């Protein structure tokens, strides 16, 4: 079977958004984002969002692949980064406490095909009731 190609940018965005919506729903999350590597492979570029307006992502539209955040780590290592709750997030990625001061869990996974990683997908869900917030 041959590789699937996507024509126009709008068509690609529609496919990414639909796949992301399925991932968010399947994970029981409230939002998600897909980031694709830049042409120079030094950054991840926001390509699709679900469950939140892209404007809320502000400074997260372009993320250096060397950034110490879960989506960049998933892309760079080729491994899933699962953060079950706020406590684990603060312990493993303390810099997120400043950027996202509310209790959440997340999962970031590398996205690729044919042995090549070309991006990462991240989903976020609310922390269970009674969880501490990130801004302790």
Task: Kindly describe this structure.
With 136 residues, this protein is an alpha+beta fold. The chain is built from 4 helices and 6 strands. Strand 5 and strand 6 form a beta hairpin. It is globular, with a radius of gyration of 15 Å. The N and C termini lie far apart (52 Å). The N terminus is likely disordered.
Offer a few descriptive terms:
136 residues; alpha+beta; Beta-Lactamase; globular; disordered N terminus
Spatial order of the strands forming the largest sheet: 3-2-1-6-5-4
| Count of folded domains | 1
Gap from first CA to last CA: 52 Å
Form type: globular
CATH arch. level architecture: 2-Layer Sandwich
Q: Assign the structural class, choosing from mainly alpha, mainly beta, alpha/beta, alpha+beta, or little secondary structure.
A: alpha+beta
Backbone CA Rg: 15 Å
How many helix segments?
A: 4
How would you spell out the order of helices and strands?
Answer: HEEEHEHHEE
Nearest-integer average pLDDT: 80
**Unreliable stretches covering 5 or more consecutive residues:** 1-7
Briefly note the CATH topology name: Beta-Lactamase
> What's the CATH superfamily, by name?
GAF domain
Number of strands: 6
Task: Describe the largest sheet.
Answer: 6 strands, antiparallel
Helix content: 25-40%
Beta-strand content estimate: 25-35%
Look at the structure and give the CATH class.
Alpha Beta
Structure in a nutshell:
The chain has 4 helices and 6 strands. With 136 residues, the protein is an alpha+beta fold. It has a single domain, classed as 2-Layer Sandwich (Beta-Lactamase).
């Amino acid at each position: 079977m041959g590789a699937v190609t996507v024509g126009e940018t709008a068509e690609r965005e529609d496919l990414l958004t639909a796949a992301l919506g399925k991932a968010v729903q399947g994970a029981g999350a409230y939002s998600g984002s897909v980031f694709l590597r830049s042409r120079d492979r030094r950054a991840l570029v926001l390509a699709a969002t679900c469950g939140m307006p892209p404007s809320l992502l502000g400074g997260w539209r372009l993320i250096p692949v060397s950034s110490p955040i879960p989506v960049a780590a998933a892309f760079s290592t080729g491994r899933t980064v699962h953060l079950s709750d706020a406590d684990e997030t603060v312990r493993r990625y303390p810099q997120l406490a400043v950027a996202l001061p509310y209790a959440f869990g997340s999962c970031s996974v590398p996205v690729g095909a044919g042995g090549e990683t070309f991006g990462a997908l991240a989903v976020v869900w609310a922390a269970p009731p009674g969880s501490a917030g990130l801004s302790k």
